[in-house]
Amino acid sequence: MSDIIQLLPDHVANQIAAGEVVQRPASVVKELLENAIDANATEIKLIIKDAGKTLVQVIDNGKGMSTTDARLSFERHATSKIKAAEDLFQLNTKGFRGEALASIAAIAHVELKSKQDKDDLGTAIVIEGSDVKSQEVSVTPTGTSVAVKHLFFNIPARRNFLKSDTVELRHITDEFHRVALAHPNIAFAFYHNGSDLFNVPQENYRQRVVHIFGSKTNEKLVPVEEETEVLKISGFVGKPNFSKKTKSEQFFFVNQRFVKSPYLNHAIKSAFEGLLKEGYHPSYFLNLTVDPKSIDINIHPTKTEIKFDDEHTLYAILRSAVKHSLGQFNIAPVLDFEHQSSLNTPYDYKDKKASTPAIEVDRSFNPFADETRVKQKATSQNTRFKSAPTTSWDGLYAGLESNGNDLQSDFSQVTFESEAKDASIFNDSAIETTKTTFQLQQKYIVSTLKSGMLVVDQNRAHQRVLYENFLKHITIKEATSQQLLFPLQLHFTPNETKIIDDLKADLEHTGFVFSELTEKEITITGVPVGVPESEVSIILEQLISDVENDVPDTNFSAADLLAKSMAKSLAIKNGQSLNSTEQEHMVNSLFACKEPNVSPTNKPTFITMAVDDIEKKFM
Known about the structure:
The chain has 18 helices and 22 strands. The protein is α+β, with helices and mostly antiparallel strands. It has three domains: about 10-200, Heat Shock Protein 90 (2-Layer Sandwich); about 205-330, Ribosomal Protein S5, domain 2; about 435-610, Ribosomal Protein S8, Chain: A, domain 1 (2-Layer Sandwich). Helix 2 (about 25-40) runs parallel beside helix 6 (about 165-180), helix 12 (about 460-475) crosses helix 16 (about 560-570) and helix 15 (about 535-550) packs across helix 16 (about 560-570). The two termini are about 65 Å apart. This is DNA mismatch repair protein MutL.
């Protein structure tokens, strides 16, 4: 029998490795930015076209590479970060696996230009699918420029799995945020299709957070500082009243490397216990500095997962530090709402005794002296006005006996104000005495049918009703809007504002009225009828989250996604009590829809049980 095991060619092995390292354009951005940081760059530019599908280019002013290093960097397991296996547990650099450039070059067109400061000329290399097309001398500034074009050009199946440009751009933006927040001492610039998305200079950590997430973020931040022998913590947490329904503002950095740790995230949520509303998540931007020997970051190809030697100690320290900061800056609710600093006792009076107050009385003071003079003056000036003498008090009541009947008749016509009635969205006269529906566990509406029993999920049913209503308004572009007494000002990050700007036309068709929409602020003067003002920010946050995570492909429209998102935000929640009239209205509205069987997310809205099925339960 002939041998069947053989070594794979290098280009095939590189494509297999690329499946682990390069999952989407954001993976390329991450690897190239980390290489630029390891090159001690102080200025880094990120240029993107078509959400990275056409071009991903990173330009830095780092130390550059020699001609030999530039060529060798595209070989597998070629790295300058480690030399022995023991170095894996003393890492202070980013890209150490030596597979990034080799994997990227196997599935894209790569152009590299690099020059060291001591050299007069640099090197330019062009590689297409692991095949080196050219290597020549080039005139280029000090540093390195890597341009990755036509990603997955030789693997069309992988390219077809890429999402829409909006989704891929969101992933790239997330990677940019993670790198830029970890290194505030480096200036970053981010361009997409020629437009400037971010341009942040060298600054401190607080300024970096504010530049990335908007100027309104500054008032949300609470500093956290703690240093022990095991762990050093620095950074910020967000105030509880600015918490979000999404986890978009949660960042852990361990030794300037972004990591995901559900265990440490639980420590933060535990510190915020009792301060957050249900369904909301805290914001945090925390830098953790530990001994490199106590962590292992080589357990996942993306290096976003990390393993600690003593997680329990880190958990306790992190929880205590965050809780201490929240208490130190009076974030927890207190009873003294109007504290006056003037009532505080100065430190100089700490040991002094209270002195007996001395009382002085002005015995010549007459409080009625001024009043007597005023009366005398008024009498002298008004002597010509005389009041009529009251000779007989009995005359004041003359005629009352004869008109007693008239007074009684007058009082009989007096109408009294009726008692206040509870407001209801339905007419009370429409309420029937016979109850045909009832609510089960404040979640299901149970009604009778000729053939058996009907059970309706009130949340999913209301979502279907609202979804078709909103979709109708967006389609015919006729929606009723209610004007706000005072304009509502909302603040979002530049990326979130751009999403709302893209959906502005569809939002206006549902009833929203925008008077101003800039990168820093959104002003709303009108909302759809029936939408409370307090729910507007929640609706827009939910919409942004849905757009970022579930952006429709070409088969769906933005209007469909908008209708689904608004229906999900405004639908009656499980646990809300409904009276019998509202229950019947919900059932009737559901079966008046075009597709009452399923919710907008294709989940069943109701089930039926035939009498035969019920009878079988008793057999």
